[in-house]
Amino acid sequence: MKFFVDTANLEDIQKAYKIGVLSGVTTNPSLVAKERIKFENRIAEICQLVPDIESVSAEVTPNAVMADEMIAEAEELIKINNGDKKITIKLPMTLQGLEACRYLTKKGVKTNVTLIFTVNQALLAARAGATYVSPFLGRLDDISEDGVQLVTKIAELFHLQKIDSQIIAASVRHPDHVTRVALAGANIATIPFNVIEQISRHPLTDQGIDKFAADWKKVSQ
Ligand code: E4P
Protein backbone atom coordinates (compact mmCIF):
# COMPACT_ATOMS: atom_id res chain seq x y z
CA MET A 1 0.00 0.00 0.00
CA LYS A 2 1.31 3.43 -0.96
CA PHE A 3 1.05 6.58 1.14
CA PHE A 4 -0.53 9.81 -0.05
CA VAL A 5 -0.72 12.78 2.28
CA ASP A 6 -4.14 14.38 2.71
CA THR A 7 -3.46 18.09 3.04
CA ALA A 8 -2.88 21.33 1.16
CA ASN A 9 -0.29 22.44 3.72
CA LEU A 10 3.17 22.77 2.15
CA GLU A 11 5.05 22.17 5.38
CA ASP A 12 3.26 18.86 6.01
CA ILE A 13 3.75 17.76 2.41
CA GLN A 14 7.46 18.59 2.64
CA LYS A 15 7.78 16.61 5.90
CA ALA A 16 6.18 13.50 4.37
CA TYR A 17 8.28 13.86 1.22
CA LYS A 18 11.55 14.17 3.16
CA ILE A 19 11.14 10.79 4.85
CA GLY A 20 10.79 9.17 1.44
CA VAL A 21 7.35 7.62 1.80
CA LEU A 22 5.26 9.94 -0.30
CA SER A 23 3.61 8.75 -3.52
CA GLY A 24 0.92 11.41 -3.81
CA VAL A 25 -1.07 14.29 -2.35
CA THR A 26 -4.83 14.69 -2.05
CA THR A 27 -6.58 18.00 -1.46
CA ASN A 28 -10.23 18.95 -1.20
CA PRO A 29 -12.10 22.28 -0.96
CA SER A 30 -12.10 22.18 2.87
CA LEU A 31 -8.34 21.53 3.05
CA VAL A 32 -7.59 24.29 0.53
CA ALA A 33 -9.94 26.75 2.34
CA LYS A 34 -7.93 26.20 5.56
CA GLU A 35 -4.79 27.46 3.82
CA ARG A 36 -6.36 30.79 2.71
CA ILE A 37 -4.51 30.85 -0.60
CA LYS A 38 -5.61 30.82 -4.24
CA PHE A 39 -6.44 27.21 -5.13
CA GLU A 40 -4.63 27.01 -8.49
CA ASN A 41 -1.51 28.64 -7.01
CA ARG A 42 -1.38 26.09 -4.20
CA ILE A 43 -1.72 23.17 -6.63
CA ALA A 44 1.14 24.63 -8.68
CA GLU A 45 3.27 25.01 -5.53
CA ILE A 46 2.57 21.44 -4.42
CA CYS A 47 3.55 20.04 -7.83
CA GLN A 48 6.81 21.99 -7.75
CA LEU A 49 7.58 20.97 -4.18
CA VAL A 50 7.21 17.24 -4.86
CA PRO A 51 8.12 16.81 -8.54
CA ASP A 52 8.61 13.05 -8.71
CA ILE A 53 5.46 11.69 -7.10
CA GLU A 54 2.62 9.85 -8.84
CA SER A 55 -0.38 12.11 -8.28
CA VAL A 56 -1.64 15.43 -6.90
CA SER A 57 -5.43 15.49 -6.60
CA ALA A 58 -7.10 18.83 -7.32
CA GLU A 59 -10.85 18.78 -6.75
CA VAL A 60 -13.34 20.68 -8.92
CA THR A 61 -14.99 23.40 -6.84
CA PRO A 62 -18.47 23.09 -5.33
CA ASN A 63 -19.58 25.71 -7.92
CA ALA A 64 -19.23 23.08 -10.64
CA VAL A 65 -22.34 20.94 -10.40
CA MET A 66 -22.96 19.95 -14.03
CA ALA A 67 -20.51 17.76 -15.99
CA ASP A 68 -19.65 20.54 -18.43
CA GLU A 69 -18.85 22.88 -15.54
CA MET A 70 -16.59 20.26 -13.95
CA ILE A 71 -14.87 19.66 -17.29
CA ALA A 72 -14.33 23.39 -17.79
CA GLU A 73 -12.66 23.65 -14.35
CA ALA A 74 -10.63 20.49 -14.99
CA GLU A 75 -9.37 21.90 -18.28
CA GLU A 76 -7.95 24.89 -16.43
CA LEU A 77 -6.45 22.74 -13.67
CA ILE A 78 -4.60 20.45 -16.08
CA LYS A 79 -2.86 23.49 -17.60
CA ILE A 80 -1.11 24.20 -14.29
CA ASN A 81 2.71 24.18 -14.60
CA ASN A 82 2.44 23.65 -18.37
CA GLY A 83 0.34 20.50 -18.10
CA ASP A 84 1.90 18.68 -15.15
CA LYS A 85 0.93 15.02 -15.61
CA LYS A 86 0.67 14.46 -11.86
CA ILE A 87 -2.45 16.59 -11.68
CA THR A 88 -5.40 14.31 -11.01
CA ILE A 89 -8.90 15.71 -11.26
CA LYS A 90 -10.97 14.88 -8.24
CA LEU A 91 -14.66 14.62 -9.01
CA PRO A 92 -17.66 14.08 -6.76
CA MET A 93 -19.50 10.74 -6.88
CA THR A 94 -22.57 12.03 -8.74
CA LEU A 95 -23.98 11.16 -12.15
CA GLN A 96 -22.57 14.47 -13.41
CA GLY A 97 -19.22 13.63 -11.81
CA LEU A 98 -19.18 10.25 -13.57
CA GLU A 99 -19.96 11.89 -16.91
CA ALA A 100 -17.03 14.27 -16.40
CA CYS A 101 -14.87 11.31 -15.33
CA ARG A 102 -15.54 9.37 -18.51
CA TYR A 103 -14.84 12.45 -20.64
CA LEU A 104 -11.56 13.26 -18.89
CA THR A 105 -10.41 9.63 -18.84
CA LYS A 106 -10.88 9.44 -22.62
CA LYS A 107 -8.67 12.52 -22.91
CA GLY A 108 -5.94 10.77 -20.91
CA VAL A 109 -6.45 12.85 -17.75
CA LYS A 110 -6.06 11.09 -14.38
CA THR A 111 -9.23 11.12 -12.25
CA ASN A 112 -10.13 10.47 -8.64
CA VAL A 113 -13.80 9.91 -7.82
CA THR A 114 -14.36 11.03 -4.27
CA LEU A 115 -17.00 10.76 -1.53
CA ILE A 116 -17.59 7.04 -2.07
CA PHE A 117 -19.63 5.33 0.63
CA THR A 118 -20.85 2.10 -1.01
CA VAL A 119 -19.43 -0.74 -3.11
CA ASN A 120 -21.87 0.11 -5.90
CA GLN A 121 -20.60 3.68 -6.05
CA ALA A 122 -17.03 2.36 -6.32
CA LEU A 123 -18.07 0.01 -9.14
CA LEU A 124 -19.78 2.82 -11.05
CA ALA A 125 -16.77 5.10 -10.65
CA ALA A 126 -14.43 2.36 -11.86
CA ARG A 127 -16.59 1.67 -14.88
CA ALA A 128 -16.63 5.39 -15.69
CA GLY A 129 -12.86 5.04 -15.99
CA ALA A 130 -11.68 6.49 -12.67
CA THR A 131 -7.94 6.13 -12.14
CA TYR A 132 -8.62 6.23 -8.40
CA VAL A 133 -11.73 5.70 -6.25
CA SER A 134 -11.83 7.20 -2.76
CA PRO A 135 -13.97 5.49 -0.11
CA PHE A 136 -14.21 7.67 3.03
CA LEU A 137 -13.89 5.30 5.97
CA GLY A 138 -13.68 7.75 8.86
CA ARG A 139 -16.93 9.43 7.90
CA LEU A 140 -18.67 6.02 7.80
CA ASP A 141 -17.28 5.18 11.25
CA ASP A 142 -18.66 8.55 12.40
CA ILE A 143 -22.18 7.33 11.65
CA SER A 144 -21.57 3.94 13.32
CA GLU A 145 -20.92 2.05 10.08
CA ASP A 146 -17.76 0.07 9.33
CA GLY A 147 -15.50 2.05 7.00
CA VAL A 148 -12.77 -0.59 6.81
CA GLN A 149 -15.37 -3.20 5.84
CA LEU A 150 -16.28 -1.02 2.84
CA VAL A 151 -12.64 -0.90 1.71
CA THR A 152 -12.38 -4.69 2.17
CA LYS A 153 -15.42 -5.29 -0.03
CA ILE A 154 -14.31 -2.89 -2.76
CA ALA A 155 -10.87 -4.55 -2.82
CA GLU A 156 -12.47 -8.01 -3.10
CA LEU A 157 -14.74 -6.88 -5.91
CA PHE A 158 -11.99 -5.14 -7.89
CA HIS A 159 -9.82 -8.25 -7.55
CA LEU A 160 -12.68 -10.58 -8.58
CA GLN A 161 -13.63 -8.51 -11.59
CA LYS A 162 -10.07 -7.54 -12.57
CA ILE A 163 -10.78 -3.82 -12.24
CA ASP A 164 -7.64 -1.76 -12.31
CA SER A 165 -8.88 1.49 -10.70
CA GLN A 166 -6.78 2.05 -7.58
CA ILE A 167 -8.46 2.24 -4.19
CA ILE A 168 -7.47 5.26 -2.10
CA ALA A 169 -8.61 4.68 1.48
CA ALA A 170 -9.58 8.22 2.50
CA SER A 171 -10.83 9.91 5.65
CA VAL A 172 -8.23 7.91 7.59
CA ARG A 173 -8.18 9.13 11.16
CA HIS A 174 -5.78 6.97 13.21
CA PRO A 175 -3.04 4.29 13.01
CA ASP A 176 -5.43 1.35 13.32
CA HIS A 177 -7.21 2.53 10.17
CA VAL A 178 -3.87 2.44 8.33
CA THR A 179 -3.07 -1.15 9.33
CA ARG A 180 -6.57 -2.39 8.61
CA VAL A 181 -6.92 -0.83 5.15
CA ALA A 182 -3.47 -2.15 4.19
CA LEU A 183 -4.60 -5.65 5.18
CA ALA A 184 -7.92 -5.09 3.39
CA GLY A 185 -6.05 -4.55 0.12
CA ALA A 186 -6.25 -0.78 -0.40
CA ASN A 187 -3.71 0.34 -3.01
CA ILE A 188 -3.19 3.67 -1.27
CA ALA A 189 -4.06 5.34 2.02
CA THR A 190 -4.30 9.11 2.01
CA ILE A 191 -3.64 10.34 5.50
CA PRO A 192 -2.91 13.56 7.38
CA PHE A 193 0.75 14.07 8.32
CA ASN A 194 0.02 13.72 12.05
CA VAL A 195 -1.12 10.13 11.43
CA ILE A 196 2.08 9.40 9.44
CA GLU A 197 3.98 10.69 12.47
CA GLN A 198 1.91 8.55 14.85
CA ILE A 199 2.50 5.34 12.89
CA SER A 200 6.25 5.94 13.01
CA ARG A 201 6.27 5.82 16.81
CA HIS A 202 6.06 3.25 19.58
CA PRO A 203 6.79 3.83 23.29
CA LEU A 204 9.18 0.86 23.31
CA THR A 205 11.13 2.41 20.41
CA ASP A 206 11.53 5.63 22.45
CA GLN A 207 12.46 3.66 25.58
CA GLY A 208 14.95 1.58 23.57
CA ILE A 209 16.64 4.70 22.19
CA ASP A 210 16.86 6.20 25.71
CA LYS A 211 18.35 2.97 27.10
CA PHE A 212 20.95 2.72 24.32
CA ALA A 213 21.89 6.34 24.96
CA ALA A 214 22.18 5.79 28.74
CA ASP A 215 24.30 2.63 28.33
CA TRP A 216 26.49 4.30 25.75
CA LYS A 217 27.07 7.24 28.04
CA LYS A 218 28.27 4.87 30.82
CA VAL A 219 30.88 3.31 28.48
CA SER A 220 32.01 6.65 27.11
CA GLN A 221 32.64 7.88 30.66
C1 E4P B 1 -9.71 12.45 0.69
O1 E4P B 1 -9.40 12.60 -0.45
C2 E4P B 1 -10.32 13.48 1.54
O2 E4P B 1 -9.64 14.68 1.30
C3 E4P B 1 -10.19 13.21 3.02
O3 E4P B 1 -9.57 11.99 3.28
C4 E4P B 1 -11.39 13.52 3.84
O4 E4P B 1 -11.14 13.21 5.18
P1 E4P B 1 -12.03 13.72 6.39
O5 E4P B 1 -13.27 12.88 6.48
O6 E4P B 1 -11.16 13.55 7.58
O7 E4P B 1 -12.36 15.16 6.10
Provide a descriptive summary of the structure in words.
The protein is of the alpha/beta class. The chain has a single domain, classed as Aldolase class I (TIM Barrel), CATH 3.20.20. The protein is built from 12 helices and 8 strands. It has an 8-stranded parallel β-barrel with strand order 1-2-3-4-5-6-7-8, surrounded by 8 helices. The longest helix has 18 residues. The protein starts with a strand and ends with a helix. The mean pLDDT is 97. The site of erythose-4-phosphate has 11 residues, from helix 8.
Summarize this, please?
The protein has 221 residues and is α/β, with parallel strands linked by helices.
Number of strands: 8
Largest beta-sheet details? 8 strands, parallel, barrel
Strand content: 15-25%
Structural class: alpha/beta
Spell out the CATH superfamily. Answer: Aldolase class I
Radius of gyration: 19 Å
What is the count of helical runs? 12
How are the secondary structure elements laid out?
Blueprint: E1 2-6, H1 10-18, E2 22-26, H2 29-35, H3 39-49, E3 55-59, H4 67-77, H5 80-83, E4 87-92, H6 95-106, E5 110-116, H7 119-127, E6 132-135, H8 137-142, H9 147-160, E7 166-169, H10 175-184, E8 188-191, H11 193-199, H12 203-220
Parallel strand pairs: 1-2, 1-8, 2-3, 3-4, 4-5, 5-6, 6-7, 7-8
Helix pairs in contact: 4-6, 9-10
Bound molecules: erythose-4-phosphate.
Features:
binds erythose-4-phosphate; 12 helices; 18% strand; alpha/beta; 8-stranded parallel β-barrel; single chain; 221 residues; TIM Barrel
